[in-house]
């Protein structure tokens, strides 16, 4: 009995590691517009150096998330991104782990645009005084950080501020959605805060948002939140245009 109890956590950890490794390969191939045909179970176990039980558990997780399909005759294959559960927290985290994909980041900004302005408008009407005080405290913490500080510190405080605003909307569904995109949200900010100007513009939008919340002005609060997301969207759009320009240049030289 004690032996099985000691092995179980190790197996769960190994199962999670294998699941992540396979998921990252699927995401990478999807970005190349390719699908993966996995080897048979015995060969895959040998490649990964794990037991059949671990591989089966990992594949079951990926099947449940829509990333893999298993058929008796055609074997195990990855599925296109359109079939994935894209709001699954694990899938969002795995996508954020890889080199930033501008298309994914743009889609994430659009999700933020659906959450934050709406939540900010509700927060302007519903926030308690205690919640406004907490939002003010988090903004003060953000303002106290020097502009040349490590981006991780700035991003963590930005997330903290916006999460407090969404919580003050008193809408549990918006808060849940905001929690789901936490990791990729931070990845987006790390990617888009490439200049002092973008950092300054984002902070100004947060100040405007807090002033609107304090005035109990839902329209102004929504617009301020839109501007905050707009800073990130503009940076991603600029990166897309730069990559398209490089692609056209390479094609013209070939």
Molecular structure report:
This protein has two domains: 82 residues, Orthogonal Bundle (Arc Repressor Mutant, subunit A); 154 residues, GntR ligand-binding domain-like (Four Helix Bundle (Hemerythrin (Met), subunit A)), CATH 1.20.120. The N terminus is likely disordered. 76% of the residues lie in helices and 3% in strands. It is globular and about 65 Å long. It has a two-stranded antiparallel ribbon. By secondary structure, it is mostly helical.
Write the layout of secondary structure elements.
Blueprint: H1 2-31, H2 41-48, H3 52-64, E1 68-71, E2 75-78, H4 89-97, H5 102-126, H6 129-143, H7 151-167, H8 172-180, H9 182-192, H10 196-215, H11 218-253
Antiparallel strand pairs: 1-2
Helix pairs in contact: 1-3, 1-4, 4-9, 5-7, 5-9, 5-10, 5-11, 6-7, 6-10, 7-9, 9-11, 10-11
Shape: globular
Strand residue percentage: under 5%
Q: Largest beta sheet, briefly?
A: 2 strands, antiparallel
Q: Are there runs of 5+ residues with pLDDT below 50, and where?
A: 1-8
Number of domains: 2
Per CATH, the superfamily of the largest domain is GntR ligand-binding domain-like
CATH class identity of the largest domain: Mainly Alpha
CATH T-level fold name of the largest domain: Four Helix Bundle (Hemerythrin (Met), subunit A)
Question: SS-based structural class?
Answer: mainly alpha
Order of helices and strands: HHHEEHHHHHHHH
Strand order of the largest sheet: 1-2
């Amino acid at each position: 009995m004690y032996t099985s109890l000691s092995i179980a956590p190790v197996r769960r950890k190994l199962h999670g590691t294998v699941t992540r490794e396979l998921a990252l390969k699927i995401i990478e191939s999807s970005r190349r517009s390719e699908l993966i045909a996995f080897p048979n179970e015995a060969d895959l176990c040998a490649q990964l150096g794990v037991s059949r039980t671990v591989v089966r558990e990992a594949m079951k997780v990926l099947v449940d998330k829509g990333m893999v399909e298993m058929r008796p005759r055609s074997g195990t294959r990855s599925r296109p991104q359109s079939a994935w559960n894209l709001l699954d927290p694990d899938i969002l985290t795995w996508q954020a782990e890889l080199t930033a994909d501008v298309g994914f980041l743009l889609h994430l900004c659009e999700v933020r645009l659906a959450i934050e302005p709406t939540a900010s408008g509700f927060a302007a009407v519903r926030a308690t005084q205690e919640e406004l005080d907490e939002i003010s405290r988090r903004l003060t913490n953000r303002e106290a950080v020097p502009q040349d500080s490590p981006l991780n510190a700035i991003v963590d405080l930005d997330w903290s501020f916006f999460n407090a605003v969404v919580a003050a909307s008193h809408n549990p569904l918006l808060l849940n959605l905001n929690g789901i995109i936490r990791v990729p949200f931070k990845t987006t900010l790390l990617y888009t805060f490439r200049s002092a100007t973008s950092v300054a513009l984002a902070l100004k939008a947060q100040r405007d948002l807090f002033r609107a919340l304090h005035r109990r002005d839902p329209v102004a609060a929504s617009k301020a939140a839109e501007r905050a997301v707009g800073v990130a969207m503009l940076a991603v759009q600029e990166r897309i245009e730069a990559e398209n320009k490089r692609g056209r240049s390479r094609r013209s030289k070939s």
